[in-house]
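INTERNAL AUDIT FORM
Audit reference: QA-55
Scope: verify that the stored structure record matches its stored sequence.
Auditor: D.O.
Record contents follow.
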Amino acid sequence: MDHITQRQLFLKHVAQTSDTPLLGLDVNIVKAKGITLTDVHGKEYIDLISGISVSNVGHCHPEVVEAIKQQSEKYMHLMVYGEFNQTPQVTYAKLLCSVLPKTLNSVYFTTSGSESIEGAMKLAKRATGRNEIISFKNSYHGSTQAALSLMSDENFKNAFRPLLPGTKQLEFNNVSELDQITSATAAVVLELVQGEAGVRIGKINFIEALKIRCEKVGALLIVDEIQTGFGRTGTLFAFEQFGIIPDILCVAKGMGGGLPIGAFVASKEIMSTLSHDPILGHINTFGGNAVCVAAAEATLNIIIRDNLVARAKEIEKIIRKTLVHPKIKELRIIGALGAIDFGNEELNMKICKFFIENGIITDWFLFCPTALRIAPPLTITNEELEKVCIRLVRNLGRSL
């Protein structure tokens, strides 16, 4: 029998949504620890994107691993519709609410960011009795059909129509378009920092005007912090930097320390509308899985105890100071979430592939292919970060 490689089996049996996953490179990771990934040949890679802002506390943090072990020995899955008072859910929900504004005091657990958005959209419709949902051009809120309906990019949307009716996209950071939010609008879904647009940061005057407009017409403001939450931007949640409080907050990614978990959070009053007319207004099987919630609690405790919010700010300072090169046309960064924009898609793809081949994991953005993503674990040390930034700059000097 002919020898079949791991790569061949991967391409044969694991569903692919790209012709060239990871730029066609044969990378078979067998271990991840801290900021380092190790492949089957013993080659080490520095993870500069944290699995897309997931591993905020690094890979396989020992306290997260221990929490997973302890909970898995007690129980893993029970029914999650309120039949059982599960201690991991209760203690984590209490902890999460304790670090949020008092109006965000009720947590609905999900298994992903997309599902958090889906649930938040349903909640807004149920709470307001309206059906229009407004989002912003170049935003990304997930790939399920309702979340996809919030996207403006027809390249991603058109093949899957018809999508959810009653959706509209406005220009991000354009105050003059906010009058299109009316008494027919159930909710506005917002990324304060547009991740897949290449780290486009909301302007304070725009965010403030948006919140005022929503309050005036009775529309709920859903803030998507799936990529920016849990210390990534230099505050525990990005909305703290913009002087607003969401009506509904969506989180996931960095929440679980590497395990799949998300949530949408609102006031008890708003959330209660899902409990009647009809009952079970939103249900799932695995939301609030005990092991995932235990991992999330350990993760949040680490972020708070080790002040990783401050680390994100320090990471930004080091990156701004060190990543200087003529090929870099613009550096957009907030905390430990940055975009290195070369202004040229072909060059960016070459650089991305070159870096991966040379042991630095990064990638590009869905709606900004000219820019390289940089979002290291918040546990990266100053020395480690300075070394990798110097490597990046030196490699940029090569004839790419």
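Auditor finding: record pair retrieved intact. The chain has two domains: 6-60+307-396, 63-305.
Action required: none
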